Amino acid sequence: MFIADKPVMKLGNMLVIADMHIGITKDIREKGILLPSQIKTMAAKLNSLKKQTRAKQLILLGDVKHHIPNISWQEEKEIPEFFSLLNFKKIILVKGNHDGRIERLVPPYVKVKKSYTYRSYAFTHGHRKIKTTKNVIVTGHNQPHVKFRDEMGATYLEPVWVKGPLKGHYKEKNLIMVPAFNELAGATIVNRDVLLGPIAKCLDKKQAHCYLLDGTDLGTINDLKIED
To answer: Which residues of 85-94 are buried (b: 16+ CB within 10 A; e: fewer)?
Structure first.
């Protein structure tokens, strides 16, 4: 299900990614750090994974664009270019909270939806409640990371998958939180921060496990708790 060392899921003939935040380099540039466009690199990674896994369809779990609510000049240019570089012709874009008016930037074959279901899975960005009969809810939005502190007091962050049961409104369902595909997109530190969105807030942290991208099971969120 999780592709080793990549923030990518594979289900059937589909690849699933989250949080691309195309346009974020404009904000970073305005803070004095000049970075190249990320779209060619991200498209090349996805095309390579498509070939390796023989996937035919791509699901984007929201926040394809970065700016709220407007569309920046960079997004106006780069989002159409990004889709033109992809070898996928079957693409589902599940809208995130950053994706206002994204319909005008994507080609006609990209199907824009509020949520999407496949087998026992419901796909949604994670910033709003959904009603579903599916057993597993898959979200982006949190861009989950774990913070570590070593014996010398140095700290560092690692992106993680989070998988565990839900409580409350979503009792008897399970959640999978997908790491951000764009490593520049920021982080929710799941072993320190309050989780974002009405679905993630129902996660049972006593039972939910964190997994590094290489598949290492780090234990539960509560086992990993850290204070600043």
So the answer is: ebebeebbbb
